[in-house]
Amino acid sequence: MNKYITLFLSLSFLGFINAQELETQPFFKYNKTIDSLMQISSDRGIFNGNVLVTRNDSLVYQKSFGYTDGSGQTELTKKSIFSPGSIGKEFVAVSIMMLIEKGVLHLDDKLSKFDLGLPEWSEKVTIKHLLNYVSGLPQIDWDNVENENDYLEDLQALPSLLFEPGTDFNYNNNSIFLQKKIIENVTKKTFQEFMRENIITPLKMKNVVFDPNFDYPNRARSFDIYKENASEIYTSKGWLWVSIDDLNKWIMALNHNKLISRKTLKLLLKNQYFENEHTILGGSDDLFETHTHGGQSYQFESIYISEFKDDLNIILMSNHKNQVPEIAHSVYDIMKDKAFTLPKKSIYRAIRQKCLENINEGVKYYYALKESDYDIYSFENPNELNSLGYDLLSLKMMNQSIEIFKLAVSEFPSDGNLYDSLGEAYYTNKQYELALLNYKKSLELNPKNTNAEEMINKIPKK
């Protein structure tokens, strides 16, 4: 039997081996099981980062795994600060709602009220639209903007919106940028100053910083599968980097209504226009029992799962993006006394280099690993091959990308999304007949795939 399956079975019964000891150490079984899970994740090269689990204001588990950057010279500590990615947007939205609760702002306030020099469409867009990503604003033009002045100039030159506000959903960072501008307009302070006075200092957040340089103490660098540090170029300011302990303070403050009321928090946790879309705070279940949010930036990846009823917080912060969400949900299952899944190595990462060198050898290696180490690698996840296919497509390795997508549809023949991806690769390579064939197959498997439908109409007809 695979040694990790044996370990899994052992962990499952850990909570029953010493009831007397557990009476004096109520989190013992959780601590030991989580530690074994995290150690396996680290040993398999799946997790490099910090993990923290608290329950009822008590520490269940906390540990650091790995290094501050790709050089592997300095180990992470609990004081290490990470970019939390989109989790950082929470600080902006909550700041807006703090001002709304004070009566300084209102959800129906229009952008035109704040003297930002925006075109006539600003008469239609409200704060409520911005909070729910339904403003009609496009995504920031990352190829042409270099700083916040460019952001504003682009918006001032924007002739029209993508759609009428409130009629569609479009996730974009322009919404975040404008919220910061609104805060600065009404408070006459920078967003950073407002945050320090109203959130960071009151919550006693100690290991936080805005826009740190590479040499800032305790700052982590994100790195890729080749242990090369990412460029981490940020064109906007006011992004908070935070330690895992301070992120926990933030979550606890939200859960215990220290910043905004429970009613306001619920409003932020549900998209007010589209039931199945997320918000700036991630999302919640229908009964508002949990709050889950994840974020990515370069190779940084963070997630937290917070459960209101049991006052349970599970936080993972990584500077080496891999399987952070999957691991977090396994930790959650452990804390809920449920069966959990041991993380597996990424087959995408395992075969990528060979595919770059020789696609045929890469595919052979895939099958060899599937034969010898099926229980170790994530062969059952279609996103692994899909991600590799798009990776190769982004490198303009068209034929190699097509071969990986062909492998994907042969491994997962009922997955319509993979046929859509293969169709895109053929379309990019101007093989329109094959593109059409795969888009039709995708639509057959998933009649709701509007992209496939649009591409079928877009493909040149003979």
Describe this structure in words.
GO terms for molecular function: hydrolase activity. InterPro entries: AmpC-like, Beta-lactam-related, Beta-lactam/transpept-like, TPR-like_helical_dom_sf, TPR_2, TPR_rpt. It comes from Olleya sediminilitoris. Pfam families: Beta-lactamase, TPR_2. This is Serine hydrolase. This protein has 18 helices and eight strands. The longest helix is centred in the first third of the chain and has 16 residues. It has a six-stranded antiparallel sheet with strand order 2-1-8-7-6-5, sandwiched between helices. A two-stranded antiparallel sheet has the order 3-4. It is globular. It has two domains: 245 residues, 3-Layer(aba) Sandwich (Beta-lactamase); 111 residues, Alpha Horseshoe (Serine Threonine Protein Phosphatase 5, Tetratricopeptide repeat). A hairpin with a 4-residue loop joins β7 and β8. The N terminus is likely disordered. It starts with a helix and ends with a helix. By secondary structure, the protein is an alpha+beta fold. α12 runs antiparallel to α13, α16 packs antiparallel against α17 and α17 runs antiparallel to α18.
Tally of helical runs: 18
Helix content: 40-55%
Mean pLDDT: 92
Q: How would the global form be characterised?
A: globular
Order of helices and strands: HHHEEHHHHHEEHHEEEEHHHHHHHH
Output the CATH class name of the largest domain: Alpha Beta
Please describe the biggest sheet, giving its number of strands, its sense, and whether it closes into a barrel: 6 strands, antiparallel
Distance N terminus to C terminus?
Answer: 57 Å
CATH superfamily of the largest domain: DD-peptidase/beta-lactamase superfamily
InterPro entries: AmpC-like, Beta-lactam-related, Beta-lactam/transpept-like, TPR-like_helical_dom_sf, TPR_2, TPR_rpt
Keywords: Hydrolase, Repeat, Signal, TPR repeat
Organism: Olleya sediminilitoris
Protein name: Serine hydrolase
